[in-house]
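One such shown below:
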Amino acid sequence: MKILKTLTLRGPNYWSIRRKKLIVMRLDLEDLAERPSNSIPGFYEGLIRVLPSLVEHFCSPGHRGGFLARVREGTYMGHIVEHVALELQELVGMTAGFGRTRETSTPGIYNVVYEYVDEQAGRYAGRAAVRLCRSLVDTGDYSLTELEKDLEDLRDLGANSALGPSTETIVTEADARKIPWMLLSARAMVQLGYGVHQQRIQATLSSHSGILGVELACDKEGTKTILQDAGIPVPRGTTIQYFDDLEEAINDVGGYPVVIKPLDGNHGRGITINVRHWQEAIAAYDLAAEESKSRSIIVERYYEGSDHRVLVVNGKLVAVAERIPAHVTGDGTSTITELIDKTNQDPNRGDGHANILTKIVVNKTAIDVMERQGYNLDSVLPKDEVVYLRATANLSTGGIAIDRTDDIHPENIWLMERVAKVIGLDIAGIDVVTSDISKPLRETNGVIVEVNAAPGFRMHVAPSQGLPRNVAAPVLDMLFPPGTPSRIPILAVTGTNGKTTTTRLLAHIYRQTGKTVGYTSTDAIYINEYCVEKGDNTGPQSAAVILRDPTVEVAVLETARGGILRAGLAFDTCDVGVVLNVAADHLGLGDIDTIEQMAKVKSVIAEVVDPSGYAVLNADDPLVAAMADKVKAKVAYFSMNPDNPIIKNHIRRNGIAAVYESGYVSILEGSWTLRVEEATLIPMTMGGMAPFMIANALAACLAAFVNGLDVEVIRQGVRTFTTSAEQTPGRMNLFNLGRYHALVDYAHNPAGYRAVGDFVKNWHGQRFGVVGGPGDRRDSDLIELGQIAAQVFDRIIVKEDDDKRGRSGGETADLIVKGILQENPGAAYEVILEETVALNKALDQVEEKGLVVVFPESVSKAIELIKARKPIG
């Protein structure tokens, strides 16, 4: 077996609208193409020996053990690889249940599709699955050592790319509220929402976090001073820079016991509590100095009591946790080392912050803390005796958390909310030492020892004891108060031909509202009239540029076949999805071999429309009209024929449609007809002579209308939109060169040629075509281009693109010539492969009042060449 290509899909896609995170692995079975699993000796036995948990895969039989029954009866290796890739992820806690395996049009080559949780881990799981299955085929075995190494690698990949428990909590809540989110490429930031409505988080710092509050919280001494000035109980303490000042500082705070910690430490590092004599103080100072970047050390009075973390969000207390330092409890027979090992076997404990609890690490700090209690690692603890392994209660050092949210005294709630406001934090983690959180601090001699910006949520979301608290909910309530939008209108446009013109027209219509419009197209990304990035920008990365931009109020996104197949959509849902048409273009690429498969690709846009939105479908195209059956949203149709039966039936049911009737672009709503504009007065229709442009106008007007725009705004948009080289380069750009005219259009498939031909046939004068086609199209497509050219043009020059796309020089031209001669053996044609030479010759030799039409590879070069001849107007 050989992996030919692996794609990572991150949004709604060809394989699934709902399952957005999929790996598509193109797998060549090679020698296994004709060998089902039941014909491979020992394979079934080896598979269940290595992965007995595959018994839980139901597969098509629909019951436990269903997949293994398929393997025993005989199934092909692509199907098996799919299930193994899913199971390897399942074994490391990455639950992924969706899979599909389909043979391509090339025998023995399969698309193996399976869900993933983490991208890198998902891709690795596919490679490991192939390796495992190949080993079982060759030897009947795959060692458990190799399997464990695979699982270890998968765990590492997942841990290295995990969002972190606090961020994960927030985005999970965002998902529940249908608030879209995306990772940003710097500083581990996450964007919540789209465009102008976006908010950002970095762990538990948010767009609302003020720099002054964050800086103050990071300054422990400054925090204590501000709180003390506000009459809030804080530890008595002082800051020193030199060891020589340590003894005096201890005396200043009232003598032993004391706490010694770095001024700028975090996660409990460098802190020693309950220091009771000079030798301990020396060691504590050295430890704090190692962790302090500023070499500034805090000496505080030690206060008896339990450590509590209080979480305040947006001025309101939302959770309280009592934190208990890492510890073990004796059983009368085990050493402390053995007790630590047993504790670390808890499946909830792991490395770092990814798990609910963190494993206890034995280091010098742990040993020192034990020795102060009179124990060492070899000590056997009496039953129920507790030995602490850390002085501080941080979860990151192995501590546990007990929820105390329901126990805190009302006066303490008031005090904690006041503390967060005094420091100026939107999200604050307040560390409190008190013997009883259910009593006011003033009664227990309790103190606030620290205020933290970006506090961790893990202890509240998954406490060791007590109720979990949904602390992400108040964060989302703060960032997106009830009634506040998180999304901007998204209008997505797809189809074989007309996408760019329709997208640009739709964006132009929306600009009449005064809103900032971001749009993508085959030639660039734009925000209003400004170009962000040139080039073909019809994929998910380009759409993400618009959705990430904090100035954009409306997104109009041209969405091409390639991006849907390669990576899926950049958005989970849209407000309007426009499908213009489906024609035989790009067939044979990306394992899309039939026009019906191409229609399925395009239908993704219609299927992801939100139920409150509209799918705008072409009623004149049967493949597009049929998409209505899978649409969960409302449907609106457009048609060049007002008597189209689909339109008639739709209107009878009080539906909305756009039609070309009596020379007008009109919108039908129930019994009402709203005439937008006469087609001859819409510049892009070339005086009404370009039917396909009228169809594009219908689609754009209808999309704007169903999304709530007034007809007058739409009318103003279509009246002022032109197919000039500046506004829509390569889309029916007509130049008046005085003696003759020239037309530039990027049509590159039979449907596009026919659409342009419908206009050209109305030209009164010689029709001179400079024609060509992309080399990666099917032979039959290129021949058809020649046939259409012979039907439309009086004289033809056949040229080729510089990028031959895998063909040899002259091969594409030969196929087009073949089509020309099939249609008209006496056609006037010649072959000039170089595009610039071909176009110049046509412009030099066209008859007076004639029309030169060029279908260029490079639109910009063709326009530049024509403009050099100084067109009129």
